[in-house]
Backbone:
């Protein structure tokens, strides 16, 4: 075999000069080696005599073959066909989730508005009512508890509402502090209503409903000592929260499902994209 | 436009530039696939797949022989196909009768320019040669096709097979020896005139 390798390299002029000289002297001395070399030379000639084949058709690439239309850069493997579907599902789920959450929050902010309007008719209010909880907390000592309520976990506001609500009710008896009482009651109601319903960390719909009912009842209590309140407004306040209760559990379920779909589809799409590019 | 400029443009995503390279190298790539796989349909698929893979892998081309780089892609695809066939053997596309004469002449082995007698002898030789190539282990087959049929030098063959120069020399020698043994009986059956013609090409 070594002889054959040397002969093969010699045939292709791949031997070093020293080795070539040595092999040529062996060839001169050995008929068998010469015969083997001739057969090797003939074999190579037969192989070389084969003409290069012509391609039966052009193998040029279309844009689709090259993956250009699908936005795949050169060097990347084709991406899984479910990637666009997952990406779209994630985006749509996120959009619907945000839409529903914003709509839900907007409804809640609009619901306390009738109480706000009634108060402003009696007592001029300078601060916007989004800050009412803070203002109330500064002026009425019992109210700071209501201001701190938004920072607490969901079960806590249940107790806070029970404690704080009677305080604004008592403060509202004083005429000069009617506004402060209303501000506290509003803040209280907001604390009770808003905190348990923060997105993505919502309590069960049943728990949220329970929180709402005391909040509505206390808002009504706090409103009674105020003389100039329209009688229809508490009824409005009471009816609007109660009216929301019927579809609230379904809303929460939809929100949770949309969030899970958005996250799940987004992660799957990201995984497919990364595995295609690796 | 020179090859280096075409390659640069193709690497930037210019499909038209890449397709000009395809036209320049498709015979070479198709020949490699045909000789490795021994059949035209599979060779066409392998050649097309090789160019698609080459376009997508252009980012990994770092200079050197573009020809060797392309041949490496198609050779690897052929290795994969041969391994797949080994796991799931398929019936040959050119059926043989009991006398081991092929019923259909392989069109891609014929040369339209020769006389009928020359054509017959050429076809006989070509069939015998391809049959002998088919019996070689894939790694030996690749080297002998690259060097002796495609005309590449040892260094280009080493690049195309991603093997050291010493391995290429050794595999080439072994492949030629096996081809010599396989063609031995056939060679003696050839008419004298044909043998003399072949001798003159040495």
Residues:
């Amino acid at each position: 075999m070594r002889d054959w390798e040397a002969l093969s390299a010699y045939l292709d002029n791949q031997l070093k000069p020293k080795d070539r000289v040595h092999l040529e002297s062996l060839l001169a001395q050995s008929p068998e080696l010469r015969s083997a070399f001739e057969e090797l030379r003939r074999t190579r000639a037969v192989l070389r005599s084969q003409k290069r084949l012509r391609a039966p058709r052009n193998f040029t690439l279309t844009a689709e073959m090259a993956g250009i239309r699908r936005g795949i850069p050169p060097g990347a493997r084709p991406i899984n066909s479910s990637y666009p579907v997952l990406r779209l599902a994630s985006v749509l789920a996120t959009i619907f989730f945000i839409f529903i959450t914003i709509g839900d929050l907007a409804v809640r902010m609009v619901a306390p508005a009738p109480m706000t309007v009634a108060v402003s008719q009696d007592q001029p209010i300078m601060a916007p009512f989004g800050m009412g909880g803070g203002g109330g907390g500064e002026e009425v000592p019992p109210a700071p508890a209501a201001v701190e309520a938004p920072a607490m976990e969901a079960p806590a506001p249940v107790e806070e509402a029970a404690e704080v609500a009677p305080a604004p009710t008592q403060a509202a008896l004083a005429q000069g502090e009617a506004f402060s009482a209303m501000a506290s009651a509003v803040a209280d109601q907001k604390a009770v209503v808003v905190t348990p319903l923060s997105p993505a960390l919502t309590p069960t719909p049943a728990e949220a409903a329970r929180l709402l009912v005391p909040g509505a009842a206390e808002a009504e209590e706090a409103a009674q000592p105020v003389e100039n309140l329209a009688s229809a407004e508490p009824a409005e306040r009471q009816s609007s929260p109660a009216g929301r209760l019927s579809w609230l559990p379904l809303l929460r379920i939809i929100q949770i499902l949309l969030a899970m779909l958005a996250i799940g589809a987004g992660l799957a799409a990201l995984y497919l994209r990364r595995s295609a590019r690796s | 436009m020179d090859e280096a400029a075409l390659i640069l443009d193709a690497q930037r995503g210019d499909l038209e530039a890449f397709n000009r390279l395809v036209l320049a190298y498709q015979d070479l790539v198709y020949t490699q696939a045909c000789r490795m796989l021994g059949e035209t349909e599979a060779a066409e698929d392998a050649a097309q797949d090789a160019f698609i893979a080459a376009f997508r892998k252009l980012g990994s081309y770092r200079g050197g022989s573009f020809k060797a780089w392309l041949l490496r892609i198609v050779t690897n695809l052929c290795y994969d196909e041969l391994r797949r066939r080994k796991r799931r053997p398929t019936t040959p596309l050119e059926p043989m009768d009991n006398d081991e004469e092929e019923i259909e002449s392989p069109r891609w082995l014929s040369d339209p320019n020769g006389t009928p007698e020359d054509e017959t002898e050429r076809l006989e030789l070509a069939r015998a040669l391809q049959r002998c190539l088919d019996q070689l282990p894939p790694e030996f087959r690749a080297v002998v096709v690259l060097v002796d049929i495609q005309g590449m030098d040892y260094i280009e063959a080493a690049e195309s097979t991603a093997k050291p120069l010493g391995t290429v020399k050794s595999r080439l020698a072994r492949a030629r020896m096996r081809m010599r043994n396989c063609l031995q009986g056939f060679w003696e059956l050839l008419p004298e005139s044909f043998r003399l013609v072949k001798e003159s090409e040495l």
